[in-house]
Design a protein that fits this description.
Blueprint lengths: L6 E6 L6 H5 L4 H11 L35 H9 L4 E6 L12 H18 L8 E6 L5 H11 L5 E6 L14 H10 L3 E4 L20 H7 L2 H12 L2 H4 L5 E4 L5 H16 L10 H8 E3 L10 H9 L12 H10 L19
Parallel strand pairs: 1-2, 2-3, 3-4, 4-5, 5-6, 6-7
Helix pairs in contact: 4-5, 5-6
Amino acid sequence: MTYSGPIIDVDLHHRWRSDVELLEFVEPRFRELILSERGNAPVDAPAVPMFHYVGGSQKRRDAYPEVGPPGSDYELLCEQWLDPYPVELGVLTYDVGTSGGMPNPYLSSALCRAANDWTAECWLQRPDSRLGGTVLVPTMLPEDGAAEIRRIGSNPRFVEALLVSNGLGEPFGHPVYHPIYEAATEMGLPIAYHLGGDSWTHNSHMSAGGMPSTRFEYHTIANHAAMLHVTSFVTHGVFERFPSLKLLVVESGVSWLPWLFWQLDRLHEIYRRESSWVKRLPSEYLRDHIRLSTQPLEAPSRHEQMLRVFEARHSAGVLPDEWAPKVFHDNAAGVLRMPAATERAVTAGAPR
């Protein structure tokens, strides 16, 4: 397949060069708290908890700039990705933004506000319309999350609201999080879920049987949390209560989706009395409200096997040519709150 049309990248990780850079945006009260707990550590020592991995580095070696971690250098990003390819929009999604589920709920909210202000000033004030911001949503205090969506979401350069850690230990369809979706609907923003935060938050796990001990385990079963969150959105009737809401599931794999909705559809008639607000077949909510990113794509050695799986749910596997405009651009354009400078007509006729 050869595709030369516009691209929307829904998962472009960016990061501050050091925690000191983020601290400049933290409210004085919480900045003092962070600095006091650092004690005699060097000035550039980590002050803000970042994404925790079970060991090793998950970064590509060629992504490291001369100074700072991968994702912190705009010029390198342009050199490696934005300039060589027809990228119309790259959605900045942090690395991976786990501040949303820290044990201290007030600090968690403060760090999300700081991260969003840092993105607005250090990335979105650049004269580059290819960059779109993500509202990092604090979830420990859902009312804070709703307020942050309304505050920073008023900036038209922000194109979605991002959930990473369910710090309350409840899947994201639970009614406790509904104020967040009310705010997102009000601001015209989709909700994005990105795996990763559940790997370290203090009261939830990203996998059913406990925490993995190797990266081999982690990356093999990392979609467990996404399966629960998506199921929760359907069974708690989120899309009935907020009928215009869209959900974008990012970097959580794709091959689990057909089985999940086959199972939901099968059980719908049996258990619908328990979830009476689920008015339609679960697969209909999938069709109208849910999209998945194509990375990672669990492609088998025989590509036609993947294609058959995703034709069963009308999603994208190893792509036929006619699917390309939708998958590379149009599906995302139909979900994100697109900046005016990047709006395009969505191609008609290709399957989702």
